[in-house]
């Protein structure tokens, strides 16, 4: 026979959300998450997407979870500060450390080999040495991948279609991003099959943007592919304005660049990645080990075009390409 007390206890347990059950199971300990990523207002609502993902799973900041934020806008000035910020979070004894992009994930790994690290946005976690494989990460790191090197060929194809008649495309690379060498190799492999010649320009600081674009202009490129990079992302408004002033149609790996004035992008949603990070946080808080949680790859990719930028460039996007566009910014 079920007593009234047992019945009420069972009803209460059923009413509790997943996060509240986790809290109860941890004997009242509120989980503490360290977030090392872009600050609100400069990160394209990425922080908000992460917070929304937590709320989707029943985690309420200040109630049943604590998030310690350390903002990484220092990427554009002194990357060594990333180590300082990661070390601060480790000293706070966070339960999980969420790290945004490749340099930030590297800093998190240097800071700890034991605290679980969840990647929000790794271009190539295997090539970066963050995980042994996507299916079996094997260490204290798991999370989301962006597949950036694999998208190079498609980005070049779309950019060529957007600018009919162009046969020479420039690529803007950051020499401090070690994954860019791999991306450039992929681009050089794909270019001949697309009938394209490539011109490479480099910028490792914002002060080098103008010189890099002037170089591409002198080499008479018809458009520019900007490789995915944290420094480029954080300074996307400035970069977009300079490309427009240089009359150069541009392709990016993030929709946020297009929202900031770039011509077009082909990518998975960065915001969706950040929202999905909460899934890994939840799994780890419930006892899963990062080594056993497969790294997830995006399955949906979108073409986004800024028609206002196209008009400013005097460019008419072909109708055949517009049929493939998922989002138009006007």
Describe the protein.
With 330 residues, the protein is an alpha/beta fold. The chain folds into two domains: 25-147 and 270-292, 3-Layer(aba) Sandwich (Rossmann fold); 149-267 and 302-329, Rossmann fold (3-Layer(aba) Sandwich), CATH 3.40.50.2300. It has helices at residues 4-15, 18-25, 46-56, 81-91, 102-111, 152-162, 179-190, 209-218, 230-234, 236-245, 255-259, 270-285, 307-312, 319-322; strands at residues 32-37, 66-71, 96-99, 117-122, 141-145, 168-173, 197-202, 223-226, 250-252, 264-267, 302-306, 327-329. The strands form two sheets. Strands 7-6-8-9-10-11-12 form a seven-stranded mixed β-sheet, with helices on both faces. β3, α5 (102-111) and β4 form a beta-alpha-beta unit. The protein starts with a helix and ends with a strand.
Describe the structure using short key phrases.
330 residues, alpha/beta, Rossmann fold, 2 domains, 7-stranded mixed β-sheet, 5-stranded parallel β-sheet, disordered N terminus
